[in-house]
C-alpha cells in the first residue's frame, strides 16, 4: 500500500468512526476485521477495532447514550449509577475479564491452536456485570454456526505448539458443558467453545485469531522451555492478573512438564478470584488437578486442598489463587489487611527462594521463578509497576545465598524471569519514551483514554526498546542490591541480567514457511500488510536474573 493509500485509508477510518455510534460497549478491538460472508456489527472507532488486548482498570465505566444501548443495557446502566464508586470500578474490572478468553476460544474453533479442554470450564461462574465498561472490546458476534475445529486443519496435521492461556476471564453469564474429563481430546475446544457464547459463535476476525495464535504460541514456548530447563520440582510460576487462565491445568495434564513445577501462584482482583473459585469448585476436571498424585497408579489425595469461595482463595500443594491489588503488593503495609499481604509475600518467597529449612538440613536445589504478566503493566502507574517488578526481581539470589537476610547457607541459588505481553503504541521504532508515536498509536490511545482509561504505563513505555531498557534498569538495581547484601565468600556465582523484546510482527515473519502457510489458509488471510501494521503495536518482553547462560526461545 502506498503512502497516499495509507493516508486515504486512515481518513476513511476516521470517517467511519465518526459515523459509528459511540455508545456501544467495546467488545472486541478487532471488530474491523470481519469475514464478508458473516453478518457485521456496526464498526467501532478505529483504534478500538485494532487492539489485541485492553488492560483492565479500576476506573468506573462511563454511561452510554441511550440510542446505542439495548433496553437491558439501559436497565443495567441505571443500576450501576446507584452503585458506590468502588462497586462501579469493580464491575468494570469484572466486565473486562472476558476479552482474551473469548479470543482464545475463537482461535480454538478455527483450528489455529490445539484443543484446550479446560478453558471453557471457566465460563459458567461469571456474574453478569451491571454495565459493560468502555474498556471491554467490541465484538461482532456471529450467530451462524461454525464448522468444527478439525475442519480447518489439513488432514494428518499435528499441532505441536502448546495452547495459550489468557490473563483475562470469560464473557459474563455464559455457560458450557464440561469436557469429558481432563485431557479429553477436543471437548471444550470445538463445539464446546461454540456453546460458550450461549449458542452464538465466539468467532473473531482472522487478524485477531492470528494475533492470538502468535501471542499464545510464543508465550507457551517460553513457559514450557522454562519448565523443561528447571530441576524437578524447581520451578515456581506466578501469574499476575491471571483471570481465567487455564495454564496450570494444561501443565498438570502434561506429565513431562508437571514434574518440574514446584508451585503455581495466581493473583488477581477479589471479584475475579471468587468467580474462578466457583468454576473450580463446580468442575471435577479442575478440582482433581489440585490433588497431588504421589504414584501415577494411585488415586489423587484431596488432603491439603482448600477452596474459600467467599474470599476467592485456593490453596493446595501445587496451586494457589489469591486476591491481590498488584499496585500495593510490593509495599510494606498493603491494602486493608497488611498481614494478609505479608503472608502472600511470604508464600511467594517460600516457593521462589532456595535455602536450608528446619525440615530438611540439606541445601535445596536451584529455584527458578517465572513471573507472567499479560496486558497488565499498561494500566499501572509506572512507579507502581516498577515497584512490583523490582520486588519480584529481588527474589533472585546468587548461588550460595540463603533465602533471607543473614542466611548464607550454601544453596543452588534462585533465578527470576519476568515475561510480559504489552502494547507498544509507537510501534517497533526507536523513538524516545513518552511520545504518542504515529497516527495508528495515537488512535489507539485516544480511543481508549476517551473512555476514561488513561494508560499511564503504555504512554511511559511505548516501544519494545523502552521495555527492554526498563527491565535492564530494574534488574540491574535488584542485582546490585543483592550484591550489596551478600558477602563475597558466600557466593559461587553472580547474577546475570538479560533482557529482550519482540513484536508480534517479528514473530509472524519468523514463522516456519509451512506453518505460516497453514495459518494463512485457515481463514484465507489476504491483508498481510494490515496484519503486520497491527502486530507491530504489541510485543512480548522479558528480563531475567540468572546464574548461568540462558536463552529465551523467541
Task: Kindly summarize this structure in a few lines.
This protein is α/β, with parallel strands linked by helices and 554 residues long. The chain is 36% helix and 11% strand. The chain is globular, with a radius of gyration of 23 Å.
Overall form: globular
Helix content: 25-40%
Give the mean pLDDT.
Answer: 70
Q: What class do helices, strands and sheet pairing give?
A: alpha/beta
Tell how many strands the DSSP assignment holds. 9
Radius of gyration, in angstroms, nearest whole number: 23 Å
CATH-level-4 superfamily name = Vaccinia Virus protein VP39
Count of DSSP helices?
A: 19
Q: Architecture, according to CATH?
A: 3-Layer(aba) Sandwich
Cα(first) to Cα(last) distance is 29 Å
Give, in spatial order, the strands making up the sheet with the most strands.
3-4-5-2-1-6-7-9-8
Question: pLDDT under 50 segments (min length 5)?
Answer: 11-50, 54-90, 125-200, 294-300, 402-410
Q: How many strands, what sense, and barrel or not for the largest sheet?
A: 9 strands, mixed
CATH topology: Rossmann fold
Strand coverage percent? 5-15%
Q: How many structural domains? A: 1
Q: Write down the CATH class.
A: Alpha Beta
Order of helices and strands: HHHHHHHEHHEHHEEEHEHEHHHEHHHE
Biased composition (Low complexity): 1-11, 60-89, 150-159
Biased composition (Gly residues): 181-197
Family: Belongs to the methyltransferase superfamily. LCMT family.
Enzyme class: transferase
Describe what this molecule looks like in 3D.
The protein is of the alpha/beta class. It has one domain (21-292, 305-546): Rossmann fold (3-Layer(aba) Sandwich). The protein is 36% helix and 11% strand. Strands 3-4-5-2-1-6-7-9-8 form a 9-stranded mixed β-sheet, sandwiched between helices. The longest helix has 23 residues, at 206-228. Mean pLDDT is 70; it is low at 11-50, 54-90, 125-200, 294-300 and 402-410.
